[in-house]
Design goal:
Number of strands: 13
Bound molecules: guanosine-5'-diphosphate, magnesium ion
Radius of gyration: 29 Å
Low-confidence stretches: none
CATH superfamily of the largest domain: P-loop containing nucleotide triphosphate hydrolases
CATH class of the largest domain: Alpha Beta
Largest sheet: 7 strands, mixed
CATH topology of the largest domain: Rossmann fold
Order of helices and strands: EEHEEEEHEHHHHHHEHEEHEHEEHHHH
Length: 448
């Protein structure tokens, strides 16, 4: 897909589809003020095109001689605008039909309908935003969980761009040392200088890449399966974590026969919590199907909460579960801690957390442990990589840096260039490949 032109004038409804108190039609480009002049008549007289910069003017929105609505005109003169071009925001009543009518009037006045992300694309091309911040804008709009929103805020604040900038500085220094060593061999520029800068850059990139999984969990959510024998307290724990009664709880074992899912925020990540049928041998076909599903869900989950009834003697099935579950993905819980403990903490031979869904004890500790398990190395990092596109580019840069020491001196510059170009693809700097921009902005909504 070729990039849309950026030097004409575009218009779009900037607010969400649907009914709202206020809606905004946004215009950007060299003719933005001229277009506004045609569709907007200031109440106090005068011309829209002459309205003061960054000051709201009340007036009438018109299509030719036809009155459409009352509203505000808010001009932002280039370059002090979101896109870096002349921008006009028309604020009017937020009905879909009236917004459409005003948009149509701007199109008749010479604007072109904007495609997805075109406003933000212009901001990037005019140096108002680097690409990581532009993508954060897209992520902010799409964020449905607080965890995703928080990562978008961090990205918008420019922290990823900053972290990459540090790595880029080291790579550029390595490049300079390399060129000096090749051009002036008699100066004796030590190899160690190149190697030190490469190592610094690599370490920073590797730290960033190590956050990619947590970043995925923040944006797309992790899958967390609750497993254990019937009556262990799985459904009660799900409800306690959610803070409302999502699952049926019953004294009779086998209450939950199918599985059910519920979204949950766990600190810096979002999670889909999955309550499963209790694991036991059964002659009931439906329940047996549920048990098979529970096993499959546990195998595919990012983290498993394995529950054992803490108030009843351990059963052979509980020990079998310890052998069955992957220890790196499992958090072990002894439930019903409000009742007398029926077995000692070390009886299962795995790290154990005691908690009670009835009095809430141990719940905070469990949430913290689950979050820590999902964050892994990312726990200590503020900036996470939240896009597969970024993770791919980081992998490519790291691979080039790993190759570098294995090739002859005069070829090492190529690997440095490869690494630098990979990072440029993330930030949108340097000779940005068109496909990168069109790929990124195709995912945006119209009007952003
Ligand atoms: N005393 C006590 N009883 C609990 C607790 N959690 C669950 N139960 C009881 O244990 C039984 C089974 O609970 P449920 O959540 O349905 O277990 P599941 O079969 O694993 O989903 C119900 O009677 C619950 O009231 C707890 O923390 N303390
Ligand atoms: Mg249940």
């Amino acid at each position: 897909m070729a990039l849309a032109p950026i030097d004409d004038t575009i218009a779009a409804i900037a607010t969400a589809p649907g009914i709202g108190a206020i809606g905004v039609v946004r215009i950007s480009g060299p003719e933005a003020l001229a277009v506004a002049d045609v569709v907007f008549r200031p109440a106090g007289g005068g011309r829209a095109a002459q309205a003061a910069d960054r000051v709201a003017t009340f007036g009438r929105l018109v299509d030719g001689d036809v009155f459409l609505d009352e509203g505000l005109l808010l001009p932002f003169h280039a370059p002090r605008s979101y896109t870096g071009q002349d921008v006009v925001e028309l604020q009017l009543h937020g009905g879909p039909a009236v917004l459409r009518a005003v948009l149509d009037a701007t199109l008749r006045a010479g604007a072109r309908p904007a495609g997805p992300g075109e406003f933000t694309l212009r901001a990037v091309v005019h140096g108002k935003l680097d690409l990581t911040r532009a993508e954060a804008v897209g992520a902010m709009i799409e964020a449905r969980s607080d965890a995703a929103r928080r990562q978008a805020s961090i990205g918008l604040a420019g922290s990823l761009a900053h972290a990459l900038g540090e790595a880029q500085t080291h790579l550029t220094s390595a490049y300079a040392h390399l060129v000096a060593a090749l051009d002036y061999p008699e100066e004796g520029v030590p190899d160690a200088d190149v190697a030190a800068h490469v190592a610094e850059a690599r370490a920073r990139l590797a730290r960033l890449l190590a956050t990619a999984q947590a970043g995925r969990f923040a944006v797309h959510g992790a899958r967390m399966a609750l497993v254990g024998r019937p009556n262990a307290g799985k459904s009660s724990l799900l409800n306690a974590l959610l803070g409302y009664e999502r699952a049926l709880v019953g004294a009779a074992p086998g209450t939950t026969r199918d599985y059910l899912e519920a979204p949950l925020e766990l600190g810096r990540v979002s999670v889909t919590a999955i309550d499963t049928a209790g694991l036991r041998a059964t002659d009931d076909d439906v329940e047996a199907g549920g048990v098979a599903r529970a096993r499959a869900l546990a195998a595919a989950a990012d983290v498993v909460v394995a529950l054992v009834d803490g108030a009843r003697p351990l059963a052979a099935e509980d020990r079998a579960l310890v052998a069955e579950l992957d220890p790196t993905r499992t958090v072990w819980v002894a439930t019903k801690a409000d009742l007398p403990h029926a077995w000692p903490d070390d009886a299962l031979g795995v790290p154990l957390l005691r908690m009670s869904s009835h009095d809430g004890s141990g719940l905070d500790a469990l949430e913290a442990r689950l979050e820590a398990r999902l964050l892994g190395d990312a726990a200590g990092e503020e900036t996470w990589v939240t896009s597969e596109r970024h993770a791919d580019a980081l992998r490519e840069a790291i691979a080039a840096l790993d190759r570098l020491p294995t090739v002859p001196h005069d070829l090492q510059g190529l690997d440095l260039e490869t690494a630098l170009r990979a990072l440029d693809r993330i930030t949108g700097r340097g000779d940005v490949v068109e496909t990168t921009l069109s790929e990124v902005f195709a995912r945006f909504c119209v009007g952003k």
